[in-house]
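Chain and conformation:
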Amino acid sequence: MSHGIVFAVSLLILTMSCKGDASCKAGEPMTVAATVAGENYCGAVENVIVNASGGTISVASSNDNSTSVNFGFGDTGDTFTIGPNVPLSFQVDTSAGTWTAAEMVGSGSLTVGLRTPSSASGTFTFVGQPLTGSTGTKIVENGSFNVTF
């Protein structure tokens, strides 16, 4: 099974379980912060899934404005760039639609700055392509995350 399919399923599961919390602050534990289409985003991390057999870490975050930023990356290595057979995918959901960047669609990168056996933090940026019913691209810049698992 390709990394893209594994991530797509993980992100769908994560997205369905997000509830949202606007009380987070960028850089604090269990937060994801970014600029999403020019708007500041700070989401509380709702779920982190470590798939040891698949070698991936999936993160789901959301805020009270019905926006979620979700992503998955390899559990080894420090720098990932969207491409064939690269364990990296992103998804942003808003009330207007869903956009994704993974294996063969969109573009993006993620850098893990710190990784321990029970946590990871780093930065990311991506350009998501629209899924069915969504239009245009969604640019996510200046992303950062700090998660424990």
User: Anything to note?
Assistant: The longest helix spans residues 3-17. The two ends are 25 Å apart (CA to CA). Residues 1-22 have pLDDT under 50 and may be disordered.
